[in-house]
Amino acid sequence: MPLVQKYQPILAVHVTKALLELEDHEVLAASVPSGPLESRSPGFVPPLTG
After folding, report:
1. Which residues of the chain carry a pLDDT beneath 50?
2. Distance CA 8, CA 34 (A)
3. Residue 21 to residues 1, 4, 25, Cα–Cα distance (Å)
4. What is the chain written as a DSSP string?
């Protein structure tokens, strides 16, 4: 998790551990987009364009 390591080095260990504990099908399901980001992330605020 290079980006997590770069910005939150302590969390990188936890994220990596959580991913390693998942079954293969769970990792695959999490890596496939299931819809717009807004529907998957509560509180998501799209960036302002202009």
Report:
1. 38
2. 26
3. 15, 18, 12
4. -HHHHHH-HHHHHHHHHHHHHS-HHHHHHHHS--S-HHHHSTT--PPP--
d(CA 1, CA 7): 10
pLDDT of residue 48: 64
Say if residues 44 and 37 touch (Cβ distance below 8 Å).
Answer: yes
Burial of 1 (0-12, 13-18, 19+ CB in 10 A): middle
Beta-carbon count within 10 A of 47 CB: 4
